[in-house]
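Work Package 4 report. The design task specified in the project plan requires that, given a folded chain encoded as structure tokens, an amino acid be chosen for each position. We show below one input record used in the internal validation round.
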């Protein structure tokens, strides 16, 4: 399934400049194939602790710089949800770095660091 009926070549041309260029085309294609589903379920592996199962959901996007609204949910903490926005190309890059690169159904460390630091900065009183 392609994004909004665009050909693979059109999608690659649109997102490649923001996602590592054409050198990463195989990973970019896989991540682009995931984008229309609007959801990724995975596990965050922890040292000496059970893994945290999560679901990341996002709104439909049309362009790399378009803000993408996302929500992160945890199976063992249904009362906790993280809502955030990021550019569509950033979400695609995280998908390219994590699930596409075989990180045991996890998202890359950069995603988790961004999420925690962004939440901390956004929630601080001025």
């Amino acid at each position: 399934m392609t994004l909004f009926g665009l050909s693979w070549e059109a999608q690659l041309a649109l997102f490649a400049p923001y996602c590592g260029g054409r050198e990463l085309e195989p990973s970019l294609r896989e991540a682009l194939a995931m984008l229309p589903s609007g959801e990724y379920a995975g596990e965050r592996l922890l040292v000496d602790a059970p893994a945290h199962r999560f679901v990341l959901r996002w709104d439909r996007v049309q362009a790399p710089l378009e803000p993408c609204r996302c929500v992160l949910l945890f199976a063992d903490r249904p009362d906790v949800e993280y809502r955030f926005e990021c550019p569509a190309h950033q979400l695609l890059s995280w998908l390219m770095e994590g699930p596409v690169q075989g990180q045991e159904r996890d998202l890359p460390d950069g995603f988790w660091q961004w999420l925690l630091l962004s939440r901390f900065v956004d929630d601080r009183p001025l």
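The two ends are 45 Å apart (CA to CA). Validation will be extended to a larger panel in the next phase.
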